[in-house]
Design goal:
- This is DUF2177 family protein.
- Pfam families: DUF2177.
- Keywords: Membrane, Transmembrane, Transmembrane helix.
- This protein has about 130 residues and is mostly helical.
- It has 5 helices and no strands.
- The protein has helices at about 1-25, 25-35, 45-70, 70-95, 105-130.
- Helix 1 packs antiparallel against helix 5.
Length: about 130
């Protein structure tokens, strides 16, 4: 039951924040900067696989250690670092290997990766601590 609460906390917050980001805030930016690179419809299987892997990664590498240390500050800092590493893996690889991959998107994505993962980590920390 505790594992389910943790997965739902992390996944729920991540899903809501990324839905708002991708669906409303950054949607026009991504199409303007990368329209020719984007699929007409996202590959939902690949997207689901990313979210499942990412949620488990945040839980294992950020949330569980933060809970053990009883430190939301740890969740904040390591969450931001984990987000930077994960999003840099994607964006910097694209920048290194794809024609016309926009540097502007790389910079925005790195900042977003840090922000969303830090927010997910801190929010999940408090939810999990309150419910378990």
């Amino acid at each position: 039951m505790e594992l389910l609460i943790k997965l739902l906390a992390v996944g729920g917050i991540m899903g809501i924040l990324d839905y708002i980001w991708l669906g409303f805030i950054a949607k026009k930016l991504y199409y303007a900067e990368m329209g020719k690179l984007l699929l007409d419809k996202p590959n939902m299987g690949a997207a689901l696989a990313f979210y499942l892997i990412y949620v488990v990664g945040v839980l294992v590498f950020v949330i569980n250690p933060a809970l053990a240390k009883e430190s939301w500050q740890y969740a904040l800092g390591i969450g931001a670092l984990f987000g930077l590493v994960a999003y840099a893996t994607y964006d910097l690889t694209n920048l290194a290997t794809m024609k016309d991959f926009p540097l502007k998107i790389v910079i925005i994505d790195l900042a977003w990766g840090m922000l969303i993962t830090a927010a997910v980590s801190v929010g999940s920390f408090f939810i999990i601590r309150a419910l378990t």
